[in-house]
């Protein structure tokens, strides 16, 4: 059953849309403070669809993500009491928040750099940095380096793959999609059985 190929084609059309960079910036900003979907899901197809603009897209994602991180920092510094009850009802985010606090205690500002590549959502680190009143300049510098490294890596891989990778993905997207679904289901089953 071919359900992933039409979705892939639609995503690539959206990635070429003239307003796509604005959407990418908005998504990157929101993800760093409250939105659950990482900007990589938009950055990768955009870089694949327009490899000549990959570095521009990586800059947009990085800058917007750091600005969104500042909003997360402000939320942590001034509004954590309002979101803490909700956060405690979200096991994934609460565990991530506790882990972020531990990493800050152990590594200081380097935790923000590591957050760019960690499975713990970056927004958790931005809020935790605000709660801990981390010095703002080191927070911003570590965010630029950590997030930038991640997004430029994604852009570089997509730029390198370019049209060849897009054609290969298009050819095998349904098979890859079903493999991904099977892996997610197997992971969920293993988690439920443990």
Report on the structure:
The chain has one domain. With 194 residues, the protein is mostly helical. The protein is built from 9 helices and no strands.
Label this structure with key terms.
globular; mainly alpha
Topology summary:
Elements (H helix, E strand, L loop, with lengths): L3 H12 L4 H12 L8 H10 L4 H25 L1 H9 L2 H17 L2 H6 L6 H10 L4 H58 L1
Helix pairs in contact: 1-3, 1-9, 2-4, 3-4, 3-9, 4-8, 4-9, 6-8
| C-alpha end-to-end distance | 32 Å
Treating each run of at least 4 consecutive H or I residues as one helix, how many helices? Answer: 9
How would the global form be characterised?
A: globular
Unreliable stretches covering 5 or more consecutive residues = none
Give the helix level as a range of percent: over 70%
* Category from helices, strands and their pairing: mainly alpha
In short:
With 194 residues, the protein is an all-alpha fold. The protein has helices at 4-15, 20-31, 40-49, 54-78, 80-88, 91-107, 110-115, 122-131, 136-193.
